[in-house]
């Protein structure tokens, strides 16, 4: 299992989700991806995308105008 970081700061919807999708395609099942954003919409959009695509949100953190989603890649 590996853990990758995706910097999606200063990107607006739908780009954080698109970048997340592109990065997940490069990862293996069980890998983790930490997505750091400044668009508050990701707190809804990325978890919804994960549910639809079989990935698991491990953590969703909001702090000082940054939003971090940590997900585990599913099958």
List the helices and strands and how they pair.
Layout: E1 3-8, H1 15-24, E2 32-37, H2 42-53, E3 56-63, E4 66-72
Parallel strand pairs: 1-2
Antiparallel strand pairs: 2-4, 3-4
Which terms would index this structure?
4 strands, alpha+beta, Translation Initiation Factor IF3, 75 residues, globular, 36% strand
Characterise this structure:
The protein has a four-stranded mixed beta sheet with strand order 1-2-4-3, covered by helices on one side. Helix content is 29%, strand content 36%. The chain has a single domain (3-72), classed as 2-Layer Sandwich (Translation Initiation Factor IF3), CATH 3.30.110. With 75 residues, the protein is α+β, with helices and mostly antiparallel strands. It contains two helices and four strands; from the N terminus they run E-H-E-H-E-E. The longest helix is centred in the middle third of the chain and has 12 residues, at 42-53.
Give the SSE string: EHEHEE
pLDDT averaged over residues? 97
The total count of helices amounts to 2
CATH architecture: 2-Layer Sandwich
User: What strand line-up does the widest sheet have?
Assistant: 1-2-4-3
How is the main sheet built? 4 strands, mixed
**Separation of termini?**
14 Å
SS strand fraction: 35-45%
> Would you state the CATH class?
Alpha Beta
Q: Count the E strands.
A: 4
Rg is 11 Å
**How much helical structure, as a percent, in the residues?**
25-40%
